Predict the structure.
Amino acid sequence: MENSKEKIENMPFAQTEAEIAFEKIAQRIDKLFQKKHLSEKEQDELNLLFNNAMIIQEILEGKTPEEL
C-alpha cells in the first residue's frame, strides 16, 4: 500500500484513479510514439491504449458506466 501512495504522491496533478490510469496510458503511448517502427504486437497495444484512454476520458467527463 505504501508503494501505491508513494506513486500517487509523485503525480501531483493526478487526483483520482482514473486520472492516474490516464497518465500511465499517456506515458506508454508517448514511449511507443518515440519508436520509428512498431511491431504488430505494439500496434495492437497502441490501439488498445487509445481505446482505454477514450473510455477513461469519458469517465473523467462524468459519464456513468451505463452511458459508456
Residues 2-60 form one domain. The radius of gyration is 14 Å.
